[in-house]
Amino acid sequence: METISPQVLRQLIRDKYGSLESAQKNGLAEDITRLQNGEPLAYVIGWIPFGGLKIHLTSRPLIPRPETEWWTTELMYVLDTRGMSKPFRLLDLCAGTGAIGLSVLARFPHAVVEFCEIDSEHAALISKNIGENNLDRSRSKIARGNLFTPFFNERFDVIATNPPYIPESRNLEPSVRDFEPPLALYGGKDGLSLVRTIALEAKDHLTKGGELWMECDVENIEEARDLVREGGARSTEIRTDQYGRPRVVVGYYP
To answer: Where are the domains of the chain?
Structure first.
């Protein structure tokens, strides 16, 4: 069984219960056992902060990573510098918790954000996260389906996505492998199965001058960039995360 650090214990008590007295009365012992068995702290707490929002995890989706929060902030900075005061449409593809799109919805009062998620429980979670963060539901839409399937003739100014991109053969840490959803982790034998489809089809769902922001695996990100370029992007760039690792492919479309 894993040893629980005092720091983790303090975070659990603070973020889930508010006080030690409340924790001791309402399930702290059970939560410690869950942590000792390797369950991620975020699942035990039930939510995680992301871009100033409280992202609930009750359907046990992929836990949003700091790297994703980092590039989402970069994306919003880019949109802000362009003076996005007029309405624009963003698609959060493979949305999971919806954290990426929720951040944009919260930051830009003229943004219309659509979410696409294949899992019905995660789609319901996105709706919950919209409500729990008091966001404008009238500027959002949640679609269920595989990648672009629900968007036959629809186009967006920005597509932002964190698709499954881990090669099936990779040995992950037990806290990830044993608890987080495989459907949100693995992208086929080489990790590029969904990346290929997104790269091929993105051009058909972007407006003139639109952009694709796609998180990728550090080890095959150059291949992912080539796929985006071959799929019709006018130009591409690779952006690094806060640790200096290549993390996001950005495609710019004619």
So the answer is: 6-45, 60-252
| pLDDT for 2 beyond 80 | yes
SS3 26: coil
Report pLDDT for 84: 61
Question: Mean pLDDT throughout 19-25?
Answer: 92
Rounded average pLDDT over 113-135 = 98
CATH number of 60-252: 3.40.50.150
Judge whether 130 and 159 are in contact, CB under 8 Å.
no
pLDDT reported for residue 65? 97
Under 8 Å CB-to-CB from 118, ≥6 apart: which residues? 94, 144, 145, 146, 183
Measure Cα distances from 128 to 56, 101, 188 in Å: 8, 14, 30
Convert the pLDDT of each residue in 67-93 to its tens digit.
Answer: 999 999 999 999 988 766 678 999 999
Distance separating alpha carbons of residues 25 and 11, to the nearest angstrom: 17
Alpha carbons 43 and 26: distance in angstroms, whole number: 16
Residue 62, classified by CB atoms within 10 Å of its CB into exposed (0-12), middle (13-18) or buried (19+), is buried
Whether 207 contacts 86, CB under 8 Å? no
b (16+ CB within 10 A) / e for 104-123 = bbbbbeebbbbbbbbbeebb
Work out the number of other CB atoms within 10 angstroms of the CB of residue 10: 11
Question: Which segments within 45-122 are labelled E, that is strand?
Answer: 47-50, 53-56, 88-93, 111-117
